[in-house]
Amino acid sequence: MNLVKNHTRIALFFFFLTALLGVLLRAYPLADFSFNYRYMVHAHSHIALLGWVYIGLTAVIYRLFLRETKQFKTYRNIFRATLVALVGMLATFPLWGYHPYSIFFSTLFILVSYAFTWFFIRQTPQRYRKRYSFKCVKAGLYYMVVSSLGPWALGLIMNTLGSTSVWYKTAIYFYLHFQYNGWFLMALCGFLFFILESRKAPVNPGRSRLFYRMLNTGIILSFFLSVLWTEPHHIFYVLGLLGAVIQLWAYTVFFNIVRSSRIFSGGKTGLSKSVVFLLKLSGTLLAVKLLLQCFSAVPEIAKIAYHTPGFIIGYLHWTFLGVISLALFAFFSYFRLWTLSRRAIGIYLAGFFITEFLIFYKGVALWLQWPLPEHYYLLLFSGSILFPVATGILFFQNLKTFNGN
What we know:
Blueprint: H1 2-27, H2 37-66, H3 72-96, H4 100-123, H5 132-147, H6 149-160, H7 166-198, H8 205-222, H9 234-261, H10 273-295, H11 299-306, H12 309-334, H13 342-368, H14 376-404
């Protein structure tokens, strides 16, 4: 257990570093910095997705499915290689951006993630394999592997068509779509299924099967929403909308499964108030995300959304900082991998809602040609400071607890 707790603290430390890099990026318009902004964005995004979320998810996966494995050395070596790749990316991306050094460490990370997927499939005990918790996590890992086709394609695209090509952005959106909607969210659904299964909550097998099939269909089809910025043939709009609607329907089924299980009702069979609060808030933010996906299939809205950077950044942060991170906080707490701080969560949520409002407002202002508020970038910078404060409190609080044990 201490091994997994240690790994969640490492994940949280990477989140803290991600938040610090985010503050540095927010400060860029306010001061005369000499660093390359785009290079720092690369470091920020890679450490966020691969340092915080990937390590957080894989730590929980190990805790739920793999802690009985006899191949401990293999897992330890995989994790060490993951850390080498992450530290390498953190050291090279801010200095050189996409450079042979950073590409080497990025490639190493992809290969190590393949090794973890193989390890999970080979080492998970047989008794878990028919459960929907296992099926969702396995599907999530497969989507992670599929998403890596985007980075593999980037090298070829840059050497042949260049970074201004339509295919360059398409490869990036391919990667992000199957990371966010496939790997991250499917794994989180698997964790919630695991809680239902371990508590022997009443779950209708037919509903679970329907959810699983529909969600996979929706994830695949909704990728076409990521290409609508190119204004393609109308069939792509139809496929994208169909995928978004199916995805929305699938999560509606999932929410009904969770609600009928009554694990949110409290008492001996329920979850703690803090875990329920975080999961409900994450679910609410997910519902908004799913509705936004449906609206983005409308040609006029798709054109506005994909040509207004504020909407894209706001949407990605809404999913990453809201839906995914809040759910991870909840699962870390439920599986006793760390302790939550109400003060830290309050600061975190304040930072989230303040920055999201400001980011989306900028998008609307650019679209409707409204003026930005005076000192807009100072306000955004001030709101962003709350993230390293919150994650720093969580990290040092849990580090102290861990050392105390």
